[in-house]
Amino acid sequence: MWRFALNRLLQAIPVLLIVISATFMLVHSAPGGPFSAEKSVPPEVIAALEAQYNLDQPLWQQYISYLGDVVQGDFGPSFKYSGRTVNELIAAGIPATAELAFYAMMVALIIGVSAGVAAAMRPNTMQDYVPMSAAMLGICMPSFLLGPLLVLIFGIYLEWLPVSGWGDMPGDKIMPSITLGTGYAAYIARLSRGGMLEVLSQDYIRTARAKGLSERVIIFKHAMRGGLIPVVAFLGPAFAGLLGGSFVVETIFQIPGLGRFYVQAAFNRDYTMILGMTIFFATLIILFNLLSDMLAIWLDPKLRHQARGNN
Amino acid sequence: MSHFPTATQPNIATHSFFRPNPIKAITALLLLTLLTSCGGGENNVSTGNRSGTLHWGNGTEPQSLDPHIATGVPEHKIIVALMEGLVLKDSKTLEPRPGVATSWDISEDGRVYTFYLRENARWSNGDPHNAHDYAWSWWRALQPALGNLYAYMYFPITNAKEYYEGEISDFEQVGVKALDDYTLQVTLNNPTPYFLQLLDHYSLYPVHRATIEKFGDADQRGTRWTYEGNIVGNGPFQLSEWKINRRVVVERNPHYWDAESIRLNKIIFYPIENAVTVERMFRAGQLHYSGTVPADKIATYRERNDPALHIAPYLGVYFYRINTRVPQLQDKRVRRALGMTIDRDKISERILKGGQIPAYTITPPGTMGYYPKSDLAFNPEAARELLADAGYPNGEGFPTTEILYNTSEGHRKIAVAIQQMWKKHLNIDVKLLNQEWKVYLNSVTSRDYEIGRAGWIGDYVDPNNFLDMFLCDGGNNRTGWCNPEYDQLILKAAPEAKTHAERLAIFNRAETMLLDDMPVIPIYIYTSNNLVNTSVKNFNDNILNQPSFKEIYLEADPADAGVKN
């Protein structure tokens, strides 16, 4: 298992290098620079600014020195937010985004797994159709629609919850978490229904039933462990997706997270910021994929056996 | 798909849904948290009205609070709370009012200004604030390495431009001199009627030398002197908190010379980019002010006669640039014909709906008493004749021409309307091309466009600020149009004018020339659309859309203490 993890981590280095190089080339080839503005900028000002951020050096030299900085964990200064470093801006955004992703994941798991398991227990009945149709709706409903809808109902008409903010007022974390989590809840519901149905048809479940075990024990102790493997495999990419994909929800609810920085950085041609965020997210995705693979191995005796056999 | 025997199903249902289980327990807990944690809270507006805290929706996260580096509107709003220039503006009329300077003399030839500074002016850390601060700050603002985009605001001052561009290296030759601790003398190249206004622009604000030098070199960009706990200003408020993407909080500055007249205790600026979000927050009573209103909501507010909606003329013009190097657009008759077939009233009433004024001149009428005459009007018949004279009778043979705009629903709607108007009245085909903001800037600056959407917001109230855009070598010209006679009027004749009326007449001559050749087609004059809670008092609309936090105070009307719509 540990050799498997180490192997995967070593593989991550060339992947990251490709990500960095491709992003570096792309941002530098995009038309318009970080300092262009609607009002014309005198050439002497542009020259002074480019000199400050080493943009006057040949591109390969900039690339090499950037790589050198990144290896040391330094993403450089932001071009747009004068005086702020990219590290500082990412650090400022992480708490809100991570917290939001965590709550959204909780929402997704609680709703998704209970709906999926319930549906799998009585397939092709109302107990299956109702949650699964709701799940379909949840997958199709984009957060930029669900968010404002929730706000309209719970924030403006009923006045139960604050319409925006993050940690400023009691209850302001509820609607963003639900908005972000719903799409994933729907997906998890479908995954867990499928996984559970497959497991429930296995011989060992029939044996358990024949032994006269209670359904509760069968479902929670025997079936769920195997039935939820697809969900576990999905958790890694899902968590990375939640972290990186929270832009819409962060904008709707005015959450001081990373997503807004990422999108703004692209619009502003804030080269170091775009690169820093991309590297950060790429690393997260790699790590979470690895974690969920390891979890899946731990959960699934078949895979565990394979992993051991390969090593 | 397989399922197990149906006979066991009732059993399952009983087990999993009607008996306690961990999932159910967690769900119940979550629901409980949800129910207990919400409701019953008071909104920001009502608590703010009691504590004297103004909650201000402020667009985007400020890029910098250094007055010599910042350029945007959100930065401007915060900086005017933290700092102050020699002169202030009346919040209604924008007439100059004493700021740090109690009074000033202007020499007979209008070139030498002597400012008398108040002796009780202090920096927010209690340090004395005097004339030497200005000499040093203006020296700093003109250091090329600082990359000050507003350096041109200094150019009316003798030798400022020469110093900035490196032609002279001795700052002593620049027309700024502290005669003693409380007297500052400024010498200008020409009498510049708008000079006093410039002093209230943040690019000419003084900065605290000791603080800047503590955190880096004077001409170093991106030092941390403007951050929470570091920055020292001379304005009515001082920075107490700056949380990235969350809020900037300023509190009353006890050392401010006029601290006693300040009635707000605190202002919280929220960086909210999304127009829909900010409007919703305003409606829910989380904000006293929003500087943006989604275009489709304006009509609703207007129908309701909602007192929160403030619509006022704004010193800015929306126009189309024409690239005069494009073959079919080289003939001024073609350009005039295009300008004469835009039904501006329709655009204003049916598309914009925010009270925007149809524009027939580049300078907004009423700028410093300037009402330019214009013979531009909506006249399709005359336009068709002009187009025929130019060799395109009934639009025949006119190549398909492209309108470029930066990606935005508002710009697209206007471009579509104009495309249809030109098709209908001139029978010419127009394509639309939208580009992302920086790509669009690149295309326009490198003149890689045919017709391009543009906007210009005045920095100071004077026709010069609009007309000097179109000088032959003007960086914002971007049309390829060049008329030496026009340059001569703007650069020589207007500054040397003896009277205000004469100066305005010269501008009018220049503007007539511009409109006659029409390298630019004016479309509408902007309006500022603000949402202001009725508890905000002394909020005055003005054409620079510049709030005076010094004057604003909060007072809840007993009737609308809840402030819910």
Overview in brief:
Chain A is mostly helical.
Question: Describe it for me?
Answer:
The complex is a heterodimer of chains A (311) and B (565). Chain A is built from 14 helices and no strands. With 311 residues, chain A is mostly helical. In chain B, the strands form 4 sheets. In chain B, strands 1, 8, 9, 10, 11, 12, 13, 14, 15, 16 and 17 form an 11-stranded mixed beta sheet that branches. A 4-stranded antiparallel beta sheet of chain B has the order 4-5-7-6, covered by helices on one side. In chain B, strands 2-3 form a two-stranded antiparallel ribbon. In chain B, strand 2 (87-89) and strand 3 (96-98) form a beta hairpin. The longest helix of chain B is centred in the C-terminal third of the chain and has 18 residues, at 409-426. The model of chain B is unreliable at 1-20, 32-40 and 561-565 (pLDDT under 50). The chains are: A mainly alpha (311), B alpha+beta (565). At the A-B interface, helix 2, helix 4, helix 6, helix 7 and helix 8 of A face helix 1, helix 2, helix 9 and helix 15 of B.
Please supply descriptive tags for the structure shown above.
heterodimer, A: 311 residues, mainly alpha, B: 565 residues, alpha+beta, D-Maltodextrin-Binding Protein, domain 2, Dipeptide-binding Protein, domain 1, Dipeptide-binding Protein, domain 3, 3 domains, 11-stranded mixed sheet, 4-stranded antiparallel sheet, 18 helices, 32% helix, globular, disordered N terminus, disordered C terminus
